[in-house]
Every structure is written in structure tokens, then in C-alpha cells.
Amino acid sequence: MEQNQQNQINPQVRKPQPIDFGAIWQAIKSNRKLYYIVLPIAFVVAVVIAKSIPPYYKCEVMLAPEAGGGGSSMGQLASLASSFGVSLGGGGNASGDAITPSLYPDLMKSTDFKTSLFPIKVHGKNDKTSMTYYDYLKNEWKEPWWKDFFGLMAPEKKQDTLVNNFELTGEQARIAGMIMKNVVCKIDKKTDLISISVTTQEPYIAALLADSVQTRLQDFLTDYRTKKSRHDLEYAEMLQQQAKKDYEHARQKYVEFVDANQDVVLESIRQMQTDLENDLQLQYNNYNTLSAQVLAYKAKVQEATPAFTTLQRATVPLGPAGPKRPQILFVCLFLAALFTTVWILYKEHQLKPLLGLS
Questions:
Q1: Are residues 159 and 48 in the same domain?
Q2: What is the pLDDT of residues 143-156, one digit of tens each?
Q3: Residue 198 belongs to what H/E stretch?
Q4: Do the domain assignments include residue 319?
Q5: What is the pLDDT of residues 79-124, one digit of tens each?
Q6: Among 46, 166, 341, 353, which is least packed by CB within 10 angstroms?
Q7: Residue 254 is part of which domain span?
Q8: Got the DSSP string for 106-118?
Q9: Contacts of 62 by beta carbon, 8 Å cutoff, 6+ apart
């Protein structure tokens, strides 16, 4: 009695209907001709898509940064510098380095690094002339036809100007974006192993670029980590050259004075000779000290220079890395079959029961 009253009060409460798989199969079976139309069309579309994507090749190099690069050379130079009374200090540049291996991927995404790859010379295996990487991406890189069809690849009409990292042109920004997609750096956080992969549409160019990018990364890091030490070294070498000139001038002046006054016994002459000797010794000590400082700064530059061990060198890939045409074909056919099935179930009123809707 109470149950009947609840049903009368809540007439909308219904028990979930079980899924009728037989009805679903019958709906699909009765509309199977639709698959005979859709799947061949999907197959043709998949083939067109797969054939329209240009093949690309990938080359990968692997590096391992050596901890404390230049440590043995640093110890030898420090020992030699200490013989002149010059201390190199205990803290090296490497210990306070602001760019650790975990930041290398972000560094390679920076505008400065991407634009530094613009002038790299590349060429095909049998090509006699070379071009810059910028010109290769701008003029030789092939895109699927639909990008041109929908106006996604409209180039700029005006001539490119010099690269200004503060304000890139639209074309330069587009090329920089392509480089960011095609030149990828990954770091294994457990081992600090550096992996640099380069993707191009020519296998020989992929190997050339991978080797060049590896060199550019090492040069970029070397320039960053040794910048202050090299500046100090240049300044110390300038002072050393000036001290050498002053010493040679004082020595020449002393020699000429002694040659001209060998038989003179006047006390004033002897005093002048003593002054010249003191000045000569002072200039020599100054030159000697600055020479030791130059040696110390050379040791600091060597200590700050990063060292890498190449675990896998750049090699020309033997086959394309993509596109994966079988996968494209499978995905297109699967999606076509899925949407066709959904449409059939919707038309035959079997979709809502399948989804548990009333």
C-alpha cells in the first residue's frame, strides 16, 4: 500500500532499463550498407592525408656533461701560479653556475639561441651549393597542401632585414617557431644525460644540423660560463703588455746610463744609477706580478669551460621517422567507424539506452 502511494507521488521514478545488445546489433546490421559507403571514403581520405604529409627524418645526439670540467688542468695551473705567490681561490665558476643541465631545454627555446641557428650552412648530400638554415626553412621546407589552401602559410612580401632579437619580423618569428618544433633538447633528470634531436626533410641535412646544434650549444654555454673570466683575462693581459713596455723602457734607460757613465765616480751619478736600478726593479716586479695574474685568469677560464662527453654522434638516418602512414590509416578508419555507429544508434533510438538516458 505504501509502495503504491510512493509511485503515485513520484510517477517519474523509473527503474534503469537493461541494455538490449540484440537491438543494438540488429540496428547496426540493418544499416551495414552505410559502412560500405563511409569506410571506403575514409580510406581514400586517410591515404590522401598520409601522402600529403612530406616524409621527415630525425637525427639524435647524446651528450654527458662532465662534472668539474678542466679540474686536472686547473690543479696544474693553480700549482704553477702559486709559485709566483698568486692564489686562484677556492670557488670555481662551475660551482656557482646559473645554467644547470636541467635548464638546457629552456635555453635552447630562447630567442637568442634560436636566431643563432639562422646562419648555419646546410646542403644536401649531392648538392654543390649550400644555404643557411633560415633559407632552408623558408624556401625549401614543404608543408601539407591544406596549409596553403587555408592560407596558413602566407609569406611576407617584404624582404627580410637583419635579425633583431628585440623585435623579430613576422617571417623571422615563424622560422624561429619552426626551429623550436624541429630542434628539441631533453634531459634525463636522473643521469643529466643530454639528448638533442633535429628533424628535417633531408636525412643528410638532419645529421649536419644535429652536429652543428651540438657545437652551438657547447659554444653558447662556454661563452656564458667563461664571460667574466675572459673579461678579467683580457684586462690583465692589457696591463701585462703595458707593464712589459714600461719594464723594457726602464731597462733600456738604465743600460744607456751605465754605458755612458762607466768611469764617472761622482756621488750624484751613483745616486742616479741607484734610482734607475730601483725603478728597473720596480718595473720588473710589476711585470712579474701581472704575468702571474694572467696565468691565474687563464686557469679560471679553463676551470669555467664546460666539458662534454659525446655518447652518440650525429649520423645520417637510414629511413624516415614519419609520417606513420599505417597509424594515420588506422585512426581514420576507426574514427569513421565510430561516428558511423553513433549515428546509426542515434537514428535507431538506441543511443540513449546505451548511455543510460531515458
A1: no
A2: 888 877 665 555 55
A3: strand 193-200
A4: no
A5: 545 544 455 444 444 444 557 778 888 888 899 999 999 999 999 8
A6: 166
A7: 230-304
A8: HHHHSHHHHHHTT
A9: 193, 194, 195, 196, 310, 311, 312
